[in-house]
Amino acid sequence: MCKSVFACVVACGMVMLGCSRQPKSIEASQAEPTATAVTHPDESLMQQPATTSPVPPIAVQIKPIAQAVPKVVASDHSQGPLHVGGQSFTFVKHVQGIEGKASGDDSTVEWWEFHDAAGNAIYRRQYPVTFDNGTFAETENIDARELKTTLGQGILVEGGELPSTPNGGWWIQVFGLINGKLTPLSSAMSADGAFLGEQVERYQPSRMFNGQQPQNVSHDVLKFRVWTGNVSIFYGVIIDWIQGRVRPEWTCLTAQGQPAGCHYQIEANPIRGKEMTFVRLFPEPQDGFTPKHIVVKPDSKIEYLEAEASVSWSTDQDNLSFGVADPGNVWIHVKIDDQDGWISGEEDFEAVGLPQAG
């Protein structure tokens, strides 16, 4: 019993307050989250930037478009017999072609071999075959012929690749007998230009002894046209049948024994301008000399005589390439209205109608 009305009211209020704060079930708490009014928020918490979980990248799988591989037919082609030093050899190439097509672009050499008289393969080269848009991505065309020169004989293999640069894509390789075996004398040779053929070059060296008449020296030479960027030079490679190798026709040195540029015959295809200009004409192909300033008129007579350039070789197991070592250090010997001298540099080359190209 309550001792007073006030005590009974307080006790009943406390019982009702306790009943109103009964904990909810876990399920109800999760289903109905309660919002709590905050009258004094924590400012430090409000200053923190909101963080969001990065959206994981969506992996898109793109299926490659299957390239249609055309139906190909394979065939073997033989050339020979090819006679070298009393022995005979046969050149065999394995050609793949696209069925139903007869164009040269629709066939390619997959491999080629040399066979001896007994039919044994003694040398072999192979090339990858790939397709693009229903045809060959690259094609190889290769043939062989006897190479009979004044000082020796062998076999010359000539190849061409498409697609290629305007002056590239071709190569040649010389084979000769070394200790009775058919052997390549070099890797496949190529340059930015063209192979012109083989010929014999004869030279008369300087007198080594007083009063002794020097004798002519002959070499079998492979001739090439090599592009310098402004003109083409005619470049020679000697076939050394005795040592079983090839080497440059010319090697030039300074008075101090340092490598120097050699003089070469040239082929020029000038594009003359219609305005008057001038060039610096040097007496020698060296910057140290004082040049003359020569006026070049649209109707001036210009003769393109020769060039001085350094040619470098780059070789590995499969390829031997050569070209102008420094196109910026090429000199061209010209004759302008009876004024003879050397010019160098793109400004002067352009003045005589030889702008850089290629």
Question: Your description of this structure?
Answer:
With 358 residues, this protein is mainly beta. The protein has two domains: 72-250, no CATH class; 262-351, no CATH class. Helix content is 9%, strand content 47%. Strands 12, 13, 14, 15, 18, 21, 24 and 25 form an eight-stranded antiparallel β-sheet that branches. A four-stranded antiparallel β-sheet has the order 1-2-3-4, with no helix packed on it. A hairpin with a 4-residue loop joins strand 7 (139-148) and strand 8.
Which key terms come to mind for this protein?
mainly beta, eight-stranded antiparallel sheet, 4 helices, 2 domains, disordered N terminus, four-stranded antiparallel sheet, 358 residues
Task: Provide a quick synopsis of the model.
The chain has 358 residues and is mainly β. Helices cover 9% and strands 47% of the residues.
Q: Beta-strand level of the residues, as a percent range?
A: over 45%
Rg value: 42 Å
Task: Give the overall shape, derived from the CA principal axes.
Answer: globular
Number of separate helices: 4
Mean pLDDT: 83
Number of separate strands: 25
Q: Into how many domains do the coordinates divide?
A: 2
Classification by helices and strands: mainly beta
Map the helices and strands.
Layout lengths: L4 H16 L5 H6 L11 H4 L25 E13 L2 E12 L8 E9 L5 E6 L4 E2 L2 E2 L2 E10 L4 E10 L7 E9 L2 E4 L3 E4 L1 E11 L13 E11 L4 E9 L4 E4 L3 E2 L5 E2 L1 E6 L9 E5 L10 E5 L5 E8 L1 E5 L3 E6 L6 E6 L2 E6 L1 H6 L7
